[in-house]
Amino acid sequence: MIHTIKMLYDNGKGSSIRAIAEELKLSRNTVRQYLRSSEKEIVEQQEHRERNKPLDGYRDYIIHLLQTYPKLSAVKILRKLKEQHPDLGVSGRSVRRYVNALKQSIAVKQKRYYQPVLDMVAGIQCQVDPGELRGVKIGGLATTVYFVVFVLSYSRFMYAGISREPLNTTGLIALHDAAFRYFGGCPKECVYDQTKMVVLQETWRELTLNPQFHRYATQAGFQIRACEGYDPESKGKVEAGVKYVQNNGLYGEEFGDWSEVQSHLQNWLETVANIRIHGVTGRSPLEMYNDQERTQMQPYGAPVPDPTQRLQRKADKTSLISYAANKYSVPQAWQQAQVGIYCEDGQLIIEDLETHAVIATHALCHGKGQIIKNKHHYRDPSQSISQYEQQLAQVLKLPLCQALCQKLKATSPKIYRDQLVGAITLIKQYEPDEDLLWQLSERPRLTACQMKTFMEAHQQAARRQERLLPEEDNAVLDLSAYAHLPQSNLEVSL
To answer: What angle do CA 261, 267, 268 make, to 5 degrees?
Structure first.
């Protein structure tokens, strides 16, 4: 490089410093430095440059950690170094660079996990996901530790509970109880993968919930929300949290017994996970939770309103009704109209007073002064919904199509698009008559799964009826197949 620079410069007769810097993609200060120094000075400077790094004295120990625990993060390596050498004055960035350079030479690979997340509203959502880590040394034996991670979407405040055995619904409920007591409150909804402990089946986004877990959620006062199948990105906060517990909380540790595992995890939550500066929020989860989210959490185990009590409310000009110190939206067609309301399974059901048809449902809010809105009550459906409605209108007469759409939308407004897809599929598959579809449209509630049940029953009934039809009186039996048989000589007296 020094020869090239001096040749291009040619003692001031060749290219300028700016031109040399642009051609060689160097800074002008670097070019000046090389031009001011002789070749001998530059060679001596490079040969005697100090190559030692502050972490070279701990190189063997770091290599031992990486070879024993290949996925150990640089952050935890630094923590382990400072446990043995409290006065070690290196930054996390220096350790990360040193560890990355070491990994190239000792052939270990460390994968880091980053998940983009969206800011949420305080006190609304908690993302929940189970995980496990195999090979944890407990009492000298390699053991599998099962755990569940709870991450509040707004503050990223988290809790992790462990289990000795693979999780079942009872164990999952027990860990929820421990998490909500740790938080000091309960969020308004919890988000899950489609595990059988929570969701037994999904059909056109209709969820068949695990009855045991649903009873607990109703009693605790939170709403269950399940991701679509094979869609972990929709709860990326807790997906990253599971890896964080695995790699930073448990991996590389050894314990005498299970009580030590629990104590270690509790201490890790309080001294590491919940006080670190989060990369997205720029604040520690504990500080953010205490400042902004704790007061927004609803009391754990708040009583559910009496489901037998039916009341009337008048919607205001903004399509809101009042109930228990909160306001809930209704479709704009019922703006400034009287509606009926009642509570059932943790939901506020809003119905038409004349037909008793359900026009809206909301998860009960146990706070005060909140406005709970369904966006579909205030704007037209998306273009895709309109397209599905048009597809349904192509196979049904318009009045019947409108009646079915209205009933499906009133019953399941949040999953209306998926319900339309199910209805179109079923009508093309079973080809039901109009009378049956009109009967379905007049039911108080209607979902695609209910449509399937009625269509299957109607089809089976029609088949049974065909089998039971009597033979026609004038039917003639074809006996030609028996013509070759000999005639009997016996006479039969009548």
So the answer is: 85
Residue 327 pairs in a beta bridge with 322, 371
For residue 482, give the DSSP letter. G
Q: How far apart are CA 76 and CA 82, in angstroms?
A: 10
Sheet holding 347-352, edge to edge: 311-314, 338-344, 347-352, 358-363
Question: How is residue 49 written in tokens?
Answer: 């440059």
Class of domain 125-296 as given by CATH: alpha beta
Q: Where are the domains of the chain?
A: 2-47, 54-106, 125-296, 311-377, 383-468
Side chain identity, residue 321? I
Of the segments 83-87, 364-368, 433-437, 473-477, which one has the largest average pLDDT value?
433-437
Rounded Cα gap, residues 164 and 179, in angstroms: 17
Residue 231 has pLDDT above 50, yes or no: no
pLDDT digits (tens, 9 = 90+) for 192-228: 988 889 988 887 777 888 888 998 998 898 999 887 6
Strands 326-329 and 371-372 turn out to be parallel
* DSSP secondary structure code for residue 444 in this structure: S
pTM: 0.47
Structure tokens that stand for 414 in this block: 């949040």
Please give the single-letter amino acid code of residue 396: L
